[in-house]
Specification:
alpha/beta; Nucleotidyltransferase, domain 5; five-stranded mixed sheet; RNaseH-like_sf
Length: 237
């Protein structure tokens, strides 16, 4: 079994204030300050340590690629959300992971936040099959398409454009904080679900392109996945 997942976050302003000397009082000014002092990228997006989780969505799929079950959570009680995703991951013993930049953000975030809340993660997440960068059991689309950093990292939305599929109709990642401030938590989960289905669609195209699945199976799974993606987009709040 594979678990395709995505996590949505907002900055942990309380923690950031503890880290920065002479922090700004206003949250927006603090975010600018933190971006300048703590971010390691040109976008100013904070590293995973400085975020807290507000939603996640996971899709269990069989080794053949067939979808099996969706699980999800949204809320302000981060500890509850962590417990739920860890419980979900306990459903199967030897699961694999599929994600877009999960190695760089989502998985480190889960580790940081579990440590903050005194929680124990599923042992599988620390297993060699998952930790090993070139593992077939932990598939990061950034690594797959960039040849493990030899080439540039593609955005998920741009991969969608490449295969003529419109992604990110619900909202962009930088809009999550604004949605959270408007108490639009169900909408954030909806956006997260679209991300997961987009990841699934791109993964299917990749598996077909490299010859891991035949055309008949690809056509069947892709048709079903595209139907679900369109349903998600049309039902956006």
């Amino acid at each position: 079994m594979y678990f395709i997942f995505d996590v949505e976050t907002v900055p942990d302003f309380e923690f950031v204030r503890n880290v920065i000397e002479n922090p700004e009082e206003d949250d927006d000014d603090l975010l600018i300050q933190a971006s300048e002092e703590l971010a390691r990228n040109s976008s100013g997006f904070l590293p995973p340590m400085y975020h807290r989780m507000v939603s996640w969505v996971g899709l269990w799929i069989e080794n053949t690629g067939s979808p099996k079950q969706k699980v999800s959570w949204h809320g302000t009680d981060e500890k509850e959300g962590l417990e739920k995703i860890f419980n979900a991951l306990g459903t199967y013993k030897d699961f694999g992971l599929i994600h877009h930049n999960g190695r760089g953000f989502d998985l480190p975030l889960l580790t940081y936040r579990a440590m903050k809340h005194g929680l124990q993660m599923p042992h599988r997440l620390n297993h060699y099959d998952i930790r090993y960068r070139y593992s077939n059991d932990n598939v990061d689309l950034l690594d797959e398409f960039s040849n493990y950093g030899a080439s540039s990292w593609p955005k998920l939305k741009h991969l969608g454009y490449l295969i003529d599929i419109p992604f990110k109709q619900t909202g962009e990642g930088n809009e999550v904080l604004a949605m959270f401030r408007r108490d639009e938590l169900p909408e954030i989960e909806h956006y997260c679900y679209e991300d997961v289905m987009a990841t699934y669609v791109v993964w299917l195209h990749l598996k077909y392109t490299v010859g891991d699945i035949n055309k008949e199976l690809f056509d069947n799974l892709n048709e079903r996945a595209m139907g679900k993606l369109e349903e998600i987009q049309e039902s956006a709040p």
